[in-house]
Q: What sequence folds into this?
């Protein structure tokens, strides 16, 4: 079925609604414009309009994304950073977003996750438990040196 391309105004309205629903990155907006079938020549103009009208803000998106992944999914900084890079967020915005994570809370959550995982693996041998716990925490995106120090505190 052939889809009729949207006019610039129709695409702008749909994208405004898309951006108002939740924070979006520039790459997500571009993908949505392609999916809507908007003319390629209008993409830059639409994105510029969204930025001017404050529907689209990369820094605000990065802070919201990092905060959500940290609070809800308890991801570490490494995983959050890679996800933001994948969404083509600038290095400045990534640094600012990761700076919003409280150091004390970060260490406390890491220690709690390490302890919970280690105690959940009580049927395995000591070294196996330690390795599985370390692998789990690294997959969550925590820094290797912080993971090692958290595991040493469990003993």
A:
């Amino acid at each position: 079925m052939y889809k009729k391309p949207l006019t610039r105004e129709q695409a702008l309205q749909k994208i405004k609604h898309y951006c108002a629903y939740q924070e979006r990155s520039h790459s997500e907006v571009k993908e949505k414009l392609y999916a809507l079938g908007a003319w390629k020549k209008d993409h830059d103009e639409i994105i510029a309009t969204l930025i001017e009208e404050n529907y689209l803000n990369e820094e605000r998106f990065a802070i919201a994304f990092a905060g959500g992944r940290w609070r809800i999914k308890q991801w570490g900084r490494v995983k959050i950073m890679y996800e933001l890079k994948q969404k083509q967020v600038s290095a400045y915005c990534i640094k600012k977003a990761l700076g919003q994570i409280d150091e004390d809370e970060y260490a406390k959550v890491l220690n709690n996750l390490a302890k919970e995982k280690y105690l959940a693996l009580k049927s395995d041998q000591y070294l196996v438990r330690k390795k599985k716990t370390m692998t789990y925490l690294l997959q969550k995106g925590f820094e290797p040196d912080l993971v090692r120090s958290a595991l040493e505190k469990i003993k």
Remarks:
- The mean pLDDT is 91.
- The chain has nine helices and no strands.
- The two ends are 63 Å apart (CA to CA).
